[in-house]
Amino acid sequence: MASARILIKGKTVQQIGYRIFLLEKALENGIERIYARNLDKNKVELLLTDEEDKINKFYKVVKTEKPEGAEVGSVKKETYDGKIPIPTIDRYFQFLTLEQLTKGREEVVKLPAFVGSA
Fold it and tell me: What percent of the chain has pLDDT over 70?
């Protein structure tokens, strides 16, 4: 098993569903362990553990494809040092789903309450 860190930098790589896109592509490519998070203002960090050839194939996908609305400046792969444990793709899917639901809930709370009934 190999591990890699892919750093995606660009003008628009956050608030457009980039991590959901990466999860979808990882599922399509059979990646076993993945973790993606936003860094700073214009970066997404992707951590992977799998067979070296699977990681290389996935890296090519990440370099050539992007979600709608993304403005990517660079995509670079490097060896990962293992400081953060990388969860299985199932666990990451659960984490990302809960995070997105929480964001949605925060937005719902901001909506004005309806007064009266029709």
Answer: 87
